[in-house]
Design brief:
The structure holds 2 protein chains of 2 kinds. Chain A is mostly helical. Helices cover 79% and strands 0% of the residues of chain A. The radius of gyration of chain B is 20 Å and the shape is globular. The relative contact order of chain B is 0.17. The chains are: A mainly alpha, B mainly alpha. At the A-B interface, helix 7, helix 8, helix 9 and helix 10 of A face helix 5 and helix 6 of B.
Chain lengths: 228, 251
């Protein structure tokens, strides 16, 4: 049997991953719900004063988005590992980077993208001026794919371990620092009325780095976890 | 020159040769490093001139600067060892990676502590979210993350390879973190010691600093060799040469 083309593998993997996530709506709804709940804790904990909230809103939305992505990644490879699909993926006669990349894209489309779409609403609830809500959305849109890819490296390395969750946080959160700094920074810059193009470009550059090299690292991490 | 390096690389890649190398090097590396450290610290802390604006509080640089540079170098070394371990699957690189982590993490913690103690009289605060301090804090987190991952995986080879991937990703991350926090906030002074060009520190203060730096780095190296030697013996405990070693030791 000849090996299938990479395009066919890509399409089949993407369809499989999307179908799998689509059929368990909890995987889509729960990160979103978590995002909303965490953001709504800030006014309760700090103070409902609009001036203060607008000041902390960029950071609050960003920290919540970051945690939502990270927590959603914990189970990214676990189900595939339990069912044995992961071993098949690693032993298949194609480069494992392709199905891994499809998995990451599917995960981002149904987790990161909804977070970005709902972020302006949460920003508005935290009293951010309407004029900066588009910047908030673009920053989350550019930042979450990086969070997904980098977090997936950690998820790949911890897939076989019992205490995955907290270990994943310890590994991944320090790696999230640049995205958090620039992501929340863009929104604060917009809040000050300064141009944001340069910082968005930096976020984009980090995204390009993560998307180009990340899937290779994730595939390698899965191989290491499989005992290769 | 290149041939010698290549031969060294291949010889040190063999656990048995590495063990003999440790046995030959450690007996003088440990005393030399301790002596250098003692000379540098006593010279710097007692005899070096008082700084004009900061008074005696500046003397903490004789601990702070060697520790900070050691922590950074250690992490970069882990990244290099990680790359070698992943690409060439060299066992000794895995061993070195594991051996580098604990002392490096300790140095990062020392750097943060001494920096805080110096910051209080000079900046008026123990802690500030300054670029360099934040980078060092993240570096400490990265060290702890690597150690946590190694602890969590039972199989030593798998643990080492997982840590190797994390170290390589971490090194790329450290560079981006540095620029990101620099953009965020900067209060720390720039580098005083320069490899190229004139250092902005007087020779009477520079020499004790360089000596204590050399001492601490060598002590780090000695610590890494001791840890690596133990790890090699534990990994190779079923091989013939380790058995013979133990038998000779007992006889």
């Amino acid at each position: 049997m000849s090996a299938p083309t990479l395009g066919a593998v890509w399409r089949a993997s993407l369809r499989r991953e999307l179908t799998l996530i689509w059929r368990s709506p909890a995987d889509i709804v729960q990160p979103l719900f978590f995002f909303v709940v965490v953001v709504s804790l800030f006014p309760l904990a700090l103070s409902p004063k609009p001036a203060l909230l607008a000041l902390v809103a960029p950071g609050a939305v960003w920290v919540a988005a970051l945690l939502a992505v990270m927590l959603s990644l914990d189970g990214l490879f676990r189900r595939d590992q339990e069912s044995g699909a992961l071993d098949l993926l690693l032993t298949a006669p194609v480069v494992s980077v392709v199905p891994v990349a499809a998995k990451l894209l599917a995960h981002w489309l149904l987790t990161g993208l909804p977070l970005a779409l709902i972020a302006p609403l949460l920003g508005y609830m935290l009293q951010l001026p309407v004029a900066v809500l588009d910047t908030l959305m673009v920053s989350v849109l550019l930042g979450t794919p990086t969070l997904t890819v980098v977090g997936a490296i950690g998820a790949a390395l911890t897939v076989g371990l019992n205490r995955g969750g907290i270990l994943l946080a310890v590994l991944v959160l320090p790696l999230y620092v640049p995205v958090l700094v620039f992501g929340a920074g863009v929104v604060r810059t917009a809040l000050d009325g300064l141009p944001t193009g340069g910082l968005l470009a930096v976020l984009g550059a980090i995204l390009a780095l993560a998307v180009s090299l990340g899937p290779v690292a994730v595939a390698l991490g899965l191989r290491i976890s499989a005992g290769d | 020159m290149w041939k010698t390096i290549k031969r060294w690389y291949h010889q040190l890649g063999s656990p048995r040769y590495f063990y003999r190398f440790c046995e030959a090097v450690l007996p003088w590396l440990v005393p030399v490093s301790l002596a250098l450290l003692a000379v540098g610290l006593i010279w710097g802390l007692v005899y070096a001139p008082v700084e004009r604006y900061q008074g005696d509080s500046y003397r903490i640089i004789y601990i702070h600067v060697p520790a900070s540079s050691g922590a950074l170098m250690g992490y970069i070394a882990m990244g290099v060892a990680g790359l070698v371990a992943l690409v060439w699957r060299m066992k000794m690189a895995e061993v070195m990676l594991k051996a580098l982590a604990p002392f490096g993490a300790a140095l990062a913690a020392v750097s943060l502590l001494t920096g805080a103690l110096w910051g209080k009289p000079t900046w008026g605060t123990y802690w500030q979210w300054d670029a360099r301090m934040t980078s060092m804090l993240i570096l400490l987190f990265l060290y702890l993350g690597i150690m946590a991952l190694q602890n969590a995986i039972r199989d030593p080879r798998q643990a080492a390879r997982a840590a190797a991937l994390l170290a390589v990703v971490g090194v790329i991350n450290v560079v981006i973190v540095k620029y990101s926090v620099e953009w965020l906030n900067t209060l720390h002074q720039g580098a005083t010691l320069k490899v190229v060009g004139e250092s902005s520190i007087d020779a009477s203060m520079k020499w004790p600093l360089l000596i204590s730096m050399a001492g601490l780095w060598l002590l780090y190296a000695a610590n890494v060799l001791i840890r690596a030697r133990t790890e090699v013996l534990s990994r190779e405990r079923r091989s013939g040469w380790v058995r013979r070693l133990v038998r000779d030791e007992e006889a």
